[in-house]
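URGENT: need a sanity check before tomorrow's submission.

F., can you look over the Do family serine endopeptidase record below? I want to be sure the sequence and structure line up before it goes out.
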Amino acid sequence: MAYISRKRLCISFVAGSLMLSAGGFAPVSAQEIPNDFSAIVRQKLPAVVAITTRQIIQDQTMLDDYLNPFDSRGPAQPQVREALGSGFVVSTEGYIVTNNHVVADSTEIRVVFSDKETSPARIVGRDPATDIAVLKVDPRPNMTATAWGDSDAMQPGAWTIAIGSPFGLGGTVTVGVLSARSRDIKAGPYDDFLQTDASINRGNSGGPLFNARGEVIGVNTAIVSPSGGSIGIGFAVPSRTAQSVVDQLISTGRIERGFIGVRLQEVTPSIAEALAISGSKGALVASVEPGSPAEKAGLQSGDVITRFNGKDVQNVHDLTLAAASQKPGSNATLTRNRGGNQQEVALTIGQRKDEEVQTGAVPSPEAGDQRLGMSLSPIPDEARQQLGLQPGTTGVFVQEVAPNSPAAENGLRPGDVIVSANNHNVTRPSDIQQEWTKSRQQKKPILFRIERQGQSLFVAVAVS
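Structure tokens as predicted:
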């Protein structure tokens, strides 16, 4: 949620007690506007869930404990923090959508349905850049699922309905209108929020925003407030973005975004005058990455990109969203202005190499579970010296290891740095997942080389 005071602007996300939080198709005609929304709520309420999470907080003292096990101070006690959010079912197979900030770094996740039944959930995938995550629970009999609507067809003034668990009050319904579209609240690089005045509060994070047909047109994510409570300014990730992210997470567990390879800046009136172009619309190319699609297409520093795939580019944000939404390997056209001359340029979209994050929480090794049981991340820069790493060492940092998991049973520990898997260097959590998948397919152990307190050793984890 975002909190605005007269002195400063602060945007943060809060889910329940964690200081992290939430906050159609063609427009419905007058003849279709209901006298009330009880029928829609009655139909959709079973598909909306409350989400409770537990997170073990590992502070710097805990990091010191497992890096220096003989420290005389003794072991620090882990702290458990609980949080609450909302979500909604998108498939009768048990897939549930919520916000990334609701479940990120959680060690235990439970879903509470409208009939008060609870179910353990695991993370299928998450995308911090758009604050979307997908959970999976075991399917229930006669499970109710929502349907996606068309957020692009929503116009300011259209009805919106939010359902969620603000302050733990499950099944809360609020109604308002769409206040605005394409809001950039500086929460991330792909901000394109719907704004609504339907009341959204702490605990609404991850819940659905419906249109008057009962279709999901947004995922409630943030609010602006001087006090922490709703003042009628809430934001939701539009279904156009959320559905694409969710589909990718369900199918692959990760996100692919388009990349053209330019660093951009806004066109100011003085820059436009200096470049001999009219107006200040477009995105100025400050530099071009060597070997990138942009360089191969002939783009140069000083070019101003004014159109992308037939749509006007008003500013840097427009181009960032447009390029990221393209499928890697697809063809695109853009219009550049160089010295006052317009020229159309064709290029092939590359794949953005955003920092990847682990796509699952530390899972309990339940029957049939084929996960390693580790929470992974890039190596923390501030911990390199304590970890005893040589300059230039690359790898993946083991944050947590689930008890009784394959990783734990074979000797992996929090604080280990995995340098290679199956003799292939690793730099991202997805590299390890890829090698683990190969090992399972070949029915052989996965071989890790790890760095532990300045020592190198090999660890083999057998496939169950």
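My own read: The two ends are 43 Å apart (CA to CA). Residues 1-26, 60-70, 355-369 have pLDDT under 50 and may be disordered. If you see anything odd, call me.
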